User: What shape does this take?
Amino acid sequence: MGAVLFVMNFKEEIFKSIQGMVDRAIDNCKVDRTYESIVKEITPKGYVVLDNTGSERTVQCCIPNLNLRKMQRVWVREPMGDLKKLHICGVIENTNNSTRRNRSR
Assistant: This one.
């Protein structure tokens, strides 16, 4: 009976050890995150957008010669989970499309 309990505890300890290694590996895993945001303001330093937690961040746009407007929807990329490198990487749609508004009249 004692040998069976020893084997069960041994298996449980191995499982806990493996689970701990997997949990640490997941915690250390950093990937790029891309999510939808909106241009709230335009400043001399860049564009003010919302990050995925709802905080305002001033960021640059990585698309050359692209002029964005307030309230324009954009894609924002957070490389490797680093908010200091947050930047606009794409435009979702043009919110000031007058032809689209005229069609609904």
About this structure: Residues 5 and 11 are 10 Å apart (CA to CA). Confidence is low (pLDDT under 50) at residues 98-102. The first helix runs from residue 2 to 28.
